[in-house]
Amino acid sequence: MENLGIKILVAEDDPNLGTILRAYLQQKGFTVFLAVDGQMAIEFFKQEEIDACVLDIMMPIKDGYTVAKEIRRIDKRVPILFLSAKSLEADKLKGFELGADDYITKPFSMEELLARISATLRRSYDDNKPENNIFVIGNYTFDYNHQSLTINGEEQKLTSKESELLRMFCINFNTLIERQNTLQKIWKDDSYFAARSMDVYITKLRKYLKKDPTIQIVNVHGVGFKLTSKDTSKK
Known about the structure:
Layout: E1 7-11, H1 15-27, E2 31-35, H2 38-47, E3 52-56, H3 64-74, E4 80-84, H4 89-97, E5 102-105, H5 110-125, E6 134-137, E7 140-143, E8 148-151, E9 154-157, H6 160-171, E10 177-178, H7 179-187, H8 192-209, E11 215-220, E12 224-229
Parallel strand pairs: 1-2, 1-3, 3-4, 4-5
Antiparallel strand pairs: 6-7, 7-8, 8-9, 10-12, 11-12
Helix pairs in contact: 2-3, 4-8, 6-8
């Protein structure tokens, strides 16, 4: 099976759901580590070479947000998917601000979960694309395959969605990219919530790029964005 060797961390304190998730993903060929609380999830992550994390938010000892924050300190690249009964926009945006790649609201189908995991794994670990994936942005070097942004020897690790978004900006440098087109290509969704999520990621990219004041992500009101240089952009 194509998923053999891929290790998934599932953190879910509901014993019934956790057992079902583990059995389903194992049936699909994954190796699954099931944690019943946040502390156990972090211990599994430190001990194993985890390829993707599926985290419930409401867990004992440490909640999913705390677990995600600790995982991101260790690894900026590994995909993180939140599972939650919380459907409020603020809860979802908080998840994305912590570096999550996806957020699935309960109840959900197993087929949807599998599709979301597969999509994030493809975005994060597909290093065999033929395109040139190293970009120079002012004083920065962006390595898409390794999800890193470097300036003056300082490296900033990026999440998979941050990398996808920055790559799209780089390919279209100094050219407007439409908001709806970006949402469809990266989020596969152009809903209001997806648009708010994209705004969170653009804010994070602006923060990462602020060490070179000539580089900016310009907001073209009501249309989209463009990555440009103050030295070359038309006034």
